What we know:
The chain is mainly alpha-helical. It has helices at 2-13, 15-32, 34-48, 53-57.
Amino acid sequence: MRAFKTLWEDLSQNRWRIFIGLLALLVVDVLQLFIPRIIKFSIDDLTAREISQKKLSLWD
């Protein structure tokens, strides 16, 4: 039980750093979901031949 008390004290002292770190991980995970979607839309437009130079430059 002493180990849990020590662990809890350490976690409680750094709770904001832990919260910000977990929030940053969540944001990165969500942003990484957009990359395959962008590639999917680009490939779908290329195969359907519905892409213009202007639309293609938006993905650069």
